[in-house]
Specification:
The complex is a heterodimer. Chain A has helices at 2-20, 34-54, 58-92, 98-130, 132-156. By secondary structure, chain A is mainly α. Chain A has one domain. The two termini of chain A are 14 Å apart. Chain B has one domain (2-155). Chain B has 5 helices and no strands. Chain B has helices spanning 2-22, 33-53, 57-91, 97-128, 131-155. In chain B, α1 (2-22) packs across α2, α1 packs antiparallel against α5 (131-155) and α3 (57-91) packs antiparallel against α4 (97-128). The chains are: A mainly alpha, B mainly alpha. Chains A and B meet through α4 and α5 of A and α4 and α5 of B.
């Protein structure tokens, strides 16, 4: 029973790391272990993927990457909260109380709506930096990555009992 | 020509994906094979939800009217998404800034409306059904939406 839950948490954590690519700013409360190296690698990979597909001029790049980094930081905070939510869910889904279910559902819906709001504010910022067409393409890239995460999470998270 | 063919293919596959997930049928539509397909898919989704929710008779009486109403509202949002993809497929090869602004704004508005709808229905459902069943229903809808988003992300090409 405990083994199953631990395995579930590990799988879900890996999915989020692999697909969401974020690094929390506060490293002091996390030991510098392999997981941090994995995160660093994934963060770099995402940047490469975005760079490949954005095809920015030098001038555009100068304007784009600071906005990108800032967005990743905000997205990182959001994904940390999602990770915590999934962690709590994995520990409780087999013996869930109504109260926990209500709490987790509320937090999930709040996270989703914040995600759209953050995306919206950054599309405006990216558009100011590199024009609307490149901003639209960047939104598509983030959406593709998000769709993969959602798909993997949907496939791996068991239904509440 | 090649572009036209690609656009048609894109529209066709996007439409099918959305139908697979959106499902409800409007009564004023013509009785063609597309409608029959939608009817079948609508019934399949209902059966899928019924199987995994395991409602008691009393719960079912409360749940299904909300479900039907939610599917109806969801379909309206999904129709806007179909139209967006349709417009995008026509313009993605030579998009103007104006087209891009419209596309981004419409997409974000659809996402927001979809979430608002979800929140509204789930908050209402919680008043009449056990919260754990409502949570499970949310999971089922999320699974289906994740599948559609994944398929769309794989098929919709990047803006040029």
């Amino acid at each position: 029973m405990k083994g199953k839950t631990t395995a579930l948490i590990t799988v879900l954590t890996l999915i989020i790391f692999l697909a969401v690519f974020t690094i929390p700013a506060q490293t002091e409360d996390k030991p510098a272990d392999n997981m941090q190296l994995v995160q660093e690698k994934i963060k770099a990979d995402k940047k490469l993927f975005v760079a490949d597909n954005m095809q920015l001029t030098e001038k555009e790049a100068k304007a784009f990457w600071p906005v990108y980094d800032s967005y990743q930081k905000d997205l990182g905070k959001l994904n940390d909260r999602l990770l915590k939510l999934i962690d709590e869910y994995a520990k409780s889904y087999e013996t869930m109380t109504d109260q926990t279910a209500q709490n987790l559902t509320n937090r999930y819906l709040a996270l989703e709506s914040e995600r759209v709001k953050i995306l919206q504010s950054y599309v405006t910022k990216v558009s100011k930096a590199v024009g609307i067409k490149k901003a639209a393409r960047y939104m598509q890239l983030e959406n593709k990555i998000n769709a993969i995460v959602r798909f993997e999470l949907a496939a791996n998270i068991p239904l509440v009992k | 020509m090649k572009t036209c063919y690609r656009s048609t293919l894109l529209i066709a596959s996007a439409l099918i994906l959305l139908l697979l997930a959106a499902l409800p049928v409007r009564s004023q539509e013509k009785a063609d094979s597309m409608e029959a397909l939608r009817d079948a898919l609508k019934a399949d989704k209902k059966a899928f939800i019924a199987k995994y929710l395991q409602l008691t008779d009393a719960e079912g009486k409360e749940f299904w009217p909300y479900y039907n109403s939610y599917q109806f509202d969801l379909q309206k949002v999904n129709e806007r998404l179909v139209k967006l993809i349709n417009d995008y497929a026509k313009t993605s090869q030579n998009m103007s800034d104006q087209d891009a602004i419209k596309m981004v704004d419409t997409y974000l508005a659809i996402e927001q409306d979809q979430l608002k709808l979800k929140e509204l229905y789930f908050r209402t459902l919680r008043k009449t059904l056990p919260v754990k069943k409502v949570a499970r229903y949310l999971q089922l809808e999320n699974k289906m939406r994740a599948l559609v988003q994944y398929q769309l992300a794989a098929r919709v090409p990047l803006i040029k």
